[in-house]
Structure formats: C-alpha cells, structure tokens
C-alpha cells in the first residue's frame, strides 16, 4: 500500500520551503510564497499516509510529518474527529494552515485590557483547499474546530519552529493564560526519503 502514497509531494514541499527560508526569510514572503506552496500541496489528497490521518475519539491529533534539520520549520497534520476543537491558544511563531480534507472553523481572538481573551471578528469557515495564516504580527490567538459534527477533517500546518517543543499559551474563558507545550501524537515519521523505491515503480 505504502508504495502508492505520493511521498514525493511532501518531499518537494519541504525542499521548496527550506529554499524559501534560505532566500527570502522575511515573514511576509514565507506566508505569501509559502502559502502558495501549501495550497499546491493540499490540492492533492494522495500523499498523507493513513497512520497520520487517523482520528482519536478523545481529542484531536497532531502528527509531526517533517521537522527541518535546524528546526526552522515543522509540518504537522492535524486530524479532527467529529466536533473536536482546540482550546483558545497562541503560537508565538508564524504558521500556515491548509485544509486537506473536510472543513474547519477558525475564530480569531485578542486580549482585552484585563488580559482576557475576547473574540475578534467573525469566525471563518475554511474549506478544503484553502490556506489561513497566523503570527504574532497578524494575529496569533485563535480557536480551530472541525466544521463537521459527523466526519473527520484534516489540515496540514507549517510553523516557523519545531512547534511541538515551543512554550506557548492557552487562554481559559475565565481569563488568564496557561503555559503549554503541545508535543506530538506520533513517535515515528513518514519516510519521504526512500527515493529508490519511487524510481522502481514502473
Ligand atoms: Fe493554532
């Protein structure tokens, strides 16, 4: 089965993203050009191995797909079971969110003068194929939920760090903030580097 997974798509994406970071590391270009690369990646749904698309009945899953060798960026699949949602949270680094399967609702938040989160603007519905962005400069606090109460949705996220190791915050409704480090749901990564196997496919 695995030989039919188009690992070359993710490999090409991370190669292009690493080159972009070398040549145009300003956040605006990473979000704009990187967003175009991500839109191209999620235009196809034949490359994410099943092990990284598996929901959990208890909570949404975040599977690391690739980490840059210098931890300049990471690529993660978020798998949302029916009705699942994140708490209100921040990132502290830039992030791109591309919906691969299903749809998601993204609600931005900001902090009021008491440091309590309040909804900022209306929630956006992100259909498959669309890309959204976050960062401390353009708005970093949001809550993301599966738009569907009865099916799985999957999004592919790219962050400007090894996001599972970044110290950041969740914002409880009653105010204040709580530090958290998300970690990842998986221990093994997809092997996107077995190029000889791809060459052997007639
Ligand atoms: Fe987020």
From TrEMBL:
Summarize where Fe cation binds, as residue positions: 89, 91, 142
Q: Which UniProt keywords apply?
A: Dioxygenase, Iron, Metal-binding, Oxidoreductase
The keyword Oxidoreductase is assigned to this record: yes
Any Pfam family = CDO_I
What InterPro entries does UniProt report for this protein, alphabetically?
CDO_1, RmlC-like_jellyroll, RmlC_Cupin_sf
Molecular-function GO term, any one: oxidoreductase activity, acting on single donors with incorporation of molecular oxygen, incorporation of two atoms of oxygen
Q: Does the keyword Heme apply?
A: no
What protein family is recorded?
Belongs to the cysteine dioxygenase family.
**Entry protein name:** Predicted metal-dependent enzyme of the double-stranded beta helix superfamily
């Amino acid at each position: 089965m695995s030989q039919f997974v188009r690992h070359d798509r993710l490999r090409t994406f991370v190669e292009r993203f690493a080159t972009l970071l070398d040549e145009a590391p300003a956040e605006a270009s990473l979000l704009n050009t990187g967003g175009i690369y991500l839109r191209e990646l999620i235009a196809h749904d034949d490359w994410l191995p099943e092990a990284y698309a598996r929901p959990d009945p208890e909570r949404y899953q975040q599977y690391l797909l690739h980490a840059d060798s210098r931890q300049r960026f990471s690529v993660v699949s978020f798998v949302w079971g029916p009705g699942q949602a994140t708490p209100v949270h921040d990132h502290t680094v830039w992030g791109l969110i591309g919906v691969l399967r299903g749809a998601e609702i993204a609600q931005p938040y900001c902090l009021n003068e008491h440091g309590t989160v309040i909804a900022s603007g209306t929630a956006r519905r992100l259909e498959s194929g669309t890309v959204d962005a976050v960062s401390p400069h353009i708005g970093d606090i949001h809550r993301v939920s599966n738009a569907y109460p009865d099916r799985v949705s999957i999004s592919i996220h790219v962050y400007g760090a090894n996001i599972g190791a970044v110290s950041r915050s969740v914002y409880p409704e009653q105010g204040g903030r709580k530090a958290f480090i998300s970690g990842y749901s998986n221990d093994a990564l997809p092997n996107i580097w077995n190029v000889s196997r791809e060459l052997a496919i007639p």
